[in-house]
Each structure stands twice: as structure tokens, then as C-alpha cells.
Amino acid sequence: MPSTRFAPPTEVPGLAARRIAADILDGVLHKRRTLDEQLEGPTAHPGLKALADRDRALMRRLVATILRRLGTLGHLLSRLLDRGIPTDAPRAQSALLIGAAQILWMDVPDHAAVDLAVRLVQSDRRAAKYAGLVNAVLRRCAREGQSLIDEVRSESLDTPSWLMARWSGHYGESAAKAIAAALSHEPALDLTVKANAAHWATRLHGETLPTGTVRTSLQGSVTMLPGFSEGQWWVQDAAAALPARLFGDIKGRRVIDLCAAPGGKTAQLAQAGAEVTAIDRSPNRVARLRENLGRLSLEARSLVADAIEWQDDAAGHGFDGVLVDAPCSATGTIRRHPDVAWLKQDSDIAALTALQQRLLNRAITLLRPGGTLVYCTCSLEPEEGEQVVAALLASDTGIRRVPVGVDEVAGLADIVTPAGDLRTLPCHLAHDDPTLGGLDGFYAARLTRS
Ligand SMILES: C[S@@+](CC[C@H](N)C(=O)[O-])C[C@H]1O[C@@H](n2cnc3c(N)ncnc32)[C@H](O)[C@@H]1O
């Protein structure tokens, strides 16, 4: 009989979620892998399948909280560790971050947060020697952590300085601080509903925003929420829902969505009754678009293609509407994707601008005279938005801006620029409860061709 002494111990509840959180955190911080690629699709962490929905939601929240408060956590740990964070054992670093984030901001008892962090380092060959240190530092964090972080200005610590400098330059110092403050909260869940927003707001314990989006603070897996499997709504930030509305009444019109996947805006166009062609160059993402449209019982012709090179008979006559939701630095989505703040760098922006210009130039060639073109990005950087459109308007006299009226965006005057473009900031749509306020940062311009 084998000795039971050598049987693997049953894992302590909650440890798997912390271990996966540590792996994913290491993926972002040391391997430059995005949260999305580690959480979804074929490259997702293999351990996720075995996690219960509740543990998966906790793990996702834990990683997001750490990335949101990374600067503050770094400052705090440097105050609590005489010799700094151990550099020879990445798992010791992630265990400290995971323990401290739970103690400070999550609904986890301090003793459980400390115990699980200690177990995390004990199970790693290189980090095991730091078990005593992790235990002592986290116990001290439970006693003194809050007062140590009260001494610092968290929002500037938690936003990389190159982004703070950009936002101060573009929007002014106080707006930059308000943006950074808005990024420190887990945002609410925003849904675009096919119909009957008031009904879904009630069923999902949320509210209907002036723009029609249903906003709820319900947490956990969206697939379990009422209306998901019936295809009555899709997840879409309230700001992301605005650009497709700028086409106005498009029932029966031919519209092409050039950067379509995973299909949030394609779904809006199809739901509005347009005859939609949806193109994206990523096969995996087009597969998701098809899955999403299928669940929603909406129809669009979808294609995997590079929009710049795509040729088709349908293109010859020109489309009534062209949407370019261009790939971008995504700095407007840091509320929902806090890894973006640490993965992107200043030099990425210039590289993306060239692609955005090419996509916009291509889009113009697909537009029939008098048709409507909407160009948008989820970036806060004017180089990817206002400046791309300004360059086009300066170089092509046949293109004209059709200014967005405040009445088209539910009277939200703050989000329309003097030139008549849409510009949302994470600090817009403020709410008494900060977790129910805010918008992703989006830019959109509406153009036409004579
Ligand atoms: C911001 S995302 C689009 C989000 C989408 N419109 C939605 O609302 O769900 C940008 C998309 O552009 C795609 N893309 C990038 N370059 C492209 C190109 N040259 N042709 C077609 N698609 C492209 C990417 O694969 C990515 O899916």
C-alpha cells in the first residue's frame, strides 16, 4: 500500500485563484502579455477552466485591482520592506502584491489574505525562502497599510508619468487628475440592449443612462445574467455605443464596418436595420464576432480581410455608410483594461497613427458621394483622433465634417468638441457613487464626401 504521507495535499480553498492571479500578473508585468489574451480564447491560462465562476470573478478583480493600484502598492511595499521587493523570486513579488491588494481594497479577511500569500510563496521553489518575510510584511500592511497610503497622491502614482504628462498637455492638469482618479475604480457593467432599456435596467438592478445604455453594478459572469442567453443585450461601454449612432437612420442602407471584431458596433448597425458588411483582419476575432451576432440573432456579412487591401464587387458602387473603429493605443479603455497603462508606451502612438491614416484614406474610397463616414478610436491621444481627421480634411477638399449636435448625444454638451466631434473622457458622466460614473475615452468624427 502506498503511504498516505506522500499523497498530494488537498488544495486550500481559494489558493488556485490566487496562484492563477499570480501567473497572470507575472504575464502582464514580466512577459508583456495582455489581460485579454490570458483570460480568453486559445491563449487563456489553462487553469481557468477548473475555477468556479465565483473564484474566476474574484481572480479577475484581484488582478485588475493590483494593476489599477500598482504605483500605490509599489510605494507601500517599499515603505514596508527595508531591502526592497525581492528581485530573485517573481512569485514573492506577486504574493506581496496579491496579499496587500486584498487587505487594502477587497472583501477578504486579513488573516486569509496573509495565509494564502504565504502558501503561494511556499509552493514556489525560488520564493519559498521568503515565506517569513511575506508573512511579516503583510501583517504589518494590515496594521499600517491604510495610513501609509493615505499619505500619498495615489492617482498620480498609479498612472504612468508619460500618460499623465500627455493628458495634462492635451486636457489641462485638473482634467488629467480627474481622468487618473476615474481610472482607480472598477467600472460598472455597461450593456447595449436591443430594445426596452427600462425593462432590462430593472431586471439587472441597474439604471438607464441618458444615452440609452443600461448600467449595472452586478458582478460575476455576464453569461449568467438574465437576457444574455436570449441575446437581448451585449456588453459595450456607454461611450463605445455612441459612434455607431452618428449614422442616424440607416434602415435598409448599405454600411461597411472596416475594423469590426468582436462586433459591438456591427451589432448596433445590424440592429438598426442596416445591410452590414463587417471586415476584420483577425480570424480569431471574426470568429468571436460571428458567435456574438449568432447569440443576438443579428445578421451581417462577415469577412476576414485586411481592409486596406480588400477588393470586392460590392465596393465598386460605394457604401452609404463606412465605419472605421481603428486599432489604437486604447488608452481610453484603461478603466476596463488596466494592463494597457503598463503595456503601452509613448512610441506605440506614432506607429499606430500611420495605420489609422491608411485605414481612413481607404475608407474614403469606399464611401459613395453624400454618404456618411464615422472614424473613431478608443484612445485619449489626439494624434490618433483629432489629428488624423484634421490631416485628412486639410489634404482632401472633397471631404467635409458633419458636426455632431449636442441633441444627438442626449444633451451631454461636455462630450462634443467645438469643432463638432465626439470626445469622451473617463471622468465624464460623474456620479455620486464613482463606480457608477465615468465613460471610456472615445473620439469620433462624422464626415461626408461631396
Ligand atoms: C478597436 S478594435 C474594433 C472593435 C469593434 N469595432 C467593436 O466595436 O467591437 C480594432 C479592430 O481592427 C482590426 N484591424 C486592425 N487592422 C486592420 C486592418 N488593416 N484591416 C481590418 N481590420 C483591422 C483588429 O483586428 C481589431 O479587431
Question: How would you concisely characterize the structure shown here?
Answer:
By secondary structure, the chain is an alpha/beta fold.
The geometry reads as globular
Number of helices: 18
CATH homologous superfamily name of the largest domain? Vaccinia Virus protein VP39
Tally of individual domains? 2
> Radius of gyration over alpha carbons?
24 Å
Architecture per CATH nomenclature, i.e. the level-2 architecture of the largest domain: 3-Layer(aba) Sandwich
- Give a list of the ligands: S-adenosylmethionine
Mean of pLDDT: 94
Q: Helix and strand string, N-terminal first?
A: HHHHHHHHHHEHEEEHEHEHEHEHHEHEEE
Provide the CATH top-level class of the largest domain. Alpha Beta
User: Which percent range fits the helix content?
Assistant: 40-55%
Could you describe the largest sheet, including whether it forms a barrel?
Answer: 8 strands, mixed
Q: Structural class of the helix and strand makeup?
A: alpha/beta
Residue share in β-strands: 5-15%
What is the CA-CA span between the terminal residues?
Answer: 86 Å
Spans of at least 5 consecutive residues whose pLDDT stays below 50 are 1-8
CATH topology annotation of the largest domain: Rossmann fold
Walk me through the structure.
The chain is α/β, with parallel strands linked by helices and 450 residues long. The chain has 2 domains: 4-152, N-utilizing Substance Protein B Homolog, Chain A; 189-449, Vaccinia Virus protein VP39 (Rossmann fold). It is built from 18 helices and 12 strands. It has helices at 15-31, 35-39, 53-68, 70-80, 90-105, 110-122, 131-150, 154-158, 161-171, 173-182, 197-203, 242-245, 264-271, 283-296, 313-316, 340-343, 346-365, 386-395, and strands at 189-193, 206-208, 214-216, 233-235, 254-257, 275-280, 301-304, 319-325, 367-377, 399-401, 422-423, 443-449. The strands form 2 sheets. Strands 5, 6, 7, 8, 9, 10, 11 and 12 form an 8-stranded mixed sheet that branches. A 4-stranded antiparallel sheet has the order 2-3-1-4, covered by helices on one side. A hairpin with a 5-residue loop joins strand 2 and strand 3 (214-216). It is globular, with a radius of gyration of 24 Å. S-adenosylmethionine binds next to helix 13 and strand 6.
